[in-house]
Amino acid sequence: MKVVSFFAGAGGLDLGFEKAGFDVIWANEYDKVIWETYEKNHKQTTLDRRSIVDIKSDEVPECDGIIGGPPCQSWSEAGALRGINDKRGQLFFDFIRILEAKQPKFFLAENVSGMLLPRHKDALENIKEMFRNAGYELSFQLLNACDYNVPQDRKRVFFVGIRKDLGFKFEFPNITYPKVDLLTTIGDLKENAVPALEKNHTNQMSCVIPNHEYMIGGFSTMFMSRNRVRKWDEQSFTIQAGGRHAPIHPQAPTMELVEKDKRKFVEGQEHLYRRLSVRECARIQTFPDDFIFYYSKVADAYKMIGNAVPVNFGNFMAECIKQQIEECEKNKGKVISKECAEI
């Protein structure tokens, strides 16, 4: 099945769908910092570099599915919480505009859990109604990536719509997978990480392993307000889009409590408290090692990776959608199984 992708970013969701056998024929990404990374890692996909607001529906290729993660900053619990009143939140409307015009078999949209906050209730219900009015049976659920072969706590909401004439509604499977810990994920990367250059410019020429460099610089009062170290046998904190907020490497001891909302690094062990490298964050986001990120400033790499849908998370959703649509077509509209193949 052919798929087009909006707000593609580095293409974590796209790669997950490709692994499930979908053909991502066309993608849209407006951030010029990401273009080189996307195009060099998705060589079979045509990349449209315009803002979605400037794209007419007839310029989008015919497809079986539309996928994407409209910008989430305006919905984030850590952000200003402006939601649909922020122009970035309103990009949902353009996603729906093109969806309604193209009428593919399905769509998938992913966003942050902050959408579920009470203050966004009316806006969220409006978006759901717009998806339904566009001609789709809508399914909506909050999932945690840690349950789907992704080694981090990462709660995200998924909208999945099936075109009404197909005669069924997507069912989120009631299955999860064993947790994957940090030792399994990045244990072999403990050595060889290098610090970024001055002003956090890339030091790629010194990386034995591509992208295995980490941001330098101090830690904010907010960062030091709680423990930022997960142990080797645990899963990572959420990989965020800001490098300064990257979790601390598990080689370091748990940060000591000084007083309420104030922690410190263990004295004498300060050298162990480095941020996770770009490559380590990519591993935790389940990007393969042959997926190379291109940038001049290390902060841009963290942003690309932190904004991505983890590849395994996207792959799980793609496998489920594919199986249910195929069963529907095979059984003329009746979905027999609500489970999906293991990834």
Automatic annotation (TrEMBL):
Biological processes, Gene Ontology terms: DNA restriction-modification system; methylation; negative regulation of gene expression via chromosomal CpG island methylation
PROSITE patterns: C5_MTASE_1, SAM_MT_C5
Molecular function GO labels: DNA (cytosine-5-)-methyltransferase activity; DNA binding
CDD domains: Cyt_C5_DNA_methylase
The protein's Enzyme Commission number: 2.1.1.37
Residues of the active site: C72
Matching Gene3D superfamilies: DNA Methylase, subunit A, domain 2, Vaccinia Virus protein VP39
Keywords from the named record: Methyltransferase, Restriction system, S-adenosyl-L-methionine, Transferase
Record's catalysed reaction(s): a 2'-deoxycytidine in DNA + S-adenosyl-L-methionine = a 5-methyl-2'-deoxycytidine in DNA + S-adenosyl-L-homocysteine + H(+)
InterPro entries: C5-Methyltransferase, C5_DNA_meth_AS, C5_MeTfrase, SAM-dependent_MTases_sf
Pfam families attached to this UniProt entry: DNA_methylase
Cross-referenced NCBIfam families: dcm
Protein family (similarity comment): Belongs to the class I-like SAM-binding methyltransferase superfamily. C5-methyltransferase family.
Name of the protein this chain belongs to: Cytosine-specific methyltransferase
Provenance organism: Ancylomarina euxinus
